[in-house]
Amino acid sequence: MNNLTAREKGFMYVITLLIIVVLGYFFGIRTLNDKYDEYKAQKNALEARRVYLDQLRENNASMSKEIDNLTESCEALELSFIDKLETESIEQYILKTYEDAGCPYLTSISSADVGMPSITYPDGTTSPDTLVCLKVTVTYVTTDGYTVPQYNRTPDLTNGGEVPAAQTAVWIRDNMGKGEFKERRGYNEFITATKKINAENKDCIKVESIDATATNGYLELTATIDFYGVNLRNRLSVDERKDAYTYWSGNTNIDTKGGFIGFPYVCDYEDSLWYGCTYEDYEYTQAKPFASYWANYLFEKNFKMAGSDIKKLIGFGVKPAEQPAEADKKAA
């Protein structure tokens, strides 16, 4: 280097500088350019993925809302049916509705499951979800406008009554066809209760038919009521309603000692509601189901004394029959 001239040395410096610049480009700037292109490509890919994910998020939100709407619709449809058809609760609800309306003289109630058609899918398979129906038929009677009725031991004709049975029987005799007993009651009350039941839940309670039959001076009134429910494999809703026909809401503290279930010939348990009642009293064949056997006996006796003339018995334009007490005095 010391032997080189200044020109040669300058040339060497230039060559060295060029080499440094070339090496810097290849190992520095070019590498940075490559990295820049790589990072730019990654940025573009990430931005494209972000756009995709944003769109997917929007789609997910829209789909979630649609799922929520469909779930609400399914739940509303499920709740339009009765969750569980419990026969004892449904019958209790029906009987209480009629009694509260002033129609207490029940003669019969029966329930039966109704076979419903199965649901078939388009591919021919059968759905595990099924529609169920319980048909309840009740028959009540009106009064006849003459015979004194009795319901739930009123008037009380048992040995445990506050008024002696004989005195109550005299009261029944003297009030035949008088006052409130001159009105035939039960028809309007029956219709009112039936309408109330039909309006209780229009989706799943349907009154199928009403029938009225005149017999022996009173009406037999029959209503057939259908209750609809569903059995669902994968139920979405939870039925938290407490409608009277879906759970037991009757008395649970009834004293059954001394003869209530498995009624004895004579109930001698003083704390029982049925104290003083005899088995024969409630097996007596009654001509009029709304009246006690005493009232039926007096009606038959009066009817015979009136010469089997019902118009004469009830005082319809003719002289009334003699009172039983007067007839007894004559016989004595």
Describe what you observe in this structure.
The protein has 332 residues and is an alpha+beta fold. Helix content is 43%, strand content 14%. It is built from 8 helices and 4 strands, in the order H-H-E-E-H-H-E-E-H-H-H-H. It has a 4-stranded antiparallel β-sheet with strand order 1-2-4-3, covered by helices on one side. Helix 2 packs across helix 4. The N and C termini lie far apart (172 Å).
Topology, pairings included?
Blueprint: H1 6-79, H2 87-100, E1 106-114, E2 130-141, H3 165-174, H4 187-200, E3 205-215, E4 218-231, H5 279-283, H6 293-305, H7 310-313, H8 324-331
Antiparallel strand pairs: 1-2, 2-4, 3-4
Helix pairs in contact: 2-4
Average pLDDT rating: 80
Largest sheet, in brief, is: 4 strands, antiparallel
Strand content: 5-15%
Structural class: alpha+beta
Q: Please give the alpha-carbon distance between the first and last residues.
A: 172 Å
Radius of gyration (Å) = 45 Å
Give me the strand/helix succession.
HHEEHHEEHHHH
Give the fraction of residues assigned to helices.
Answer: 40-55%
Order of strands, widest sheet: 1-2-4-3
- Work out the helix count: 8
Q: Could you name the key traits of this structure?
A:
alpha+beta, four-stranded antiparallel sheet, disordered C terminus
Structure, briefly:
This protein has 332 residues and is α+β, with helices and mostly antiparallel strands. It contains 8 helices and 4 strands, in the order H-H-E-E-H-H-E-E-H-H-H-H.
